[in-house]
Amino acid sequence: MPKTVVCSRYKTELPGLEKQPVPGANGEKIFAMVSQRAWDEWQELQTMLINEKHLSLIDPEARKYLTEQMWHYFNNEAVDRAEGYIEPTAPEA
To answer: Domains of the chain, with CATH numbers?
Structure first.
């Protein structure tokens, strides 16, 4: 059973990550204070930002931008959205 953390995003105790998601201090901080649920949601948002804003992960400024957005998301602050982005809907049955 995974450890539980008091999630910085949801302000409640939730299952945490099984392992540190990235190396270094950021990874340690995420592992200690972000739930699996919040991490999974961030991964979806990050993918959308990368695709819709045409970010290149080899660009240090793009990585810096994504790190800033990640901490805004985990701290319940305003996060950028792609202009004109329409959330996908589930297909009708």
So the answer is: 4-74 (1.10.3880.10)
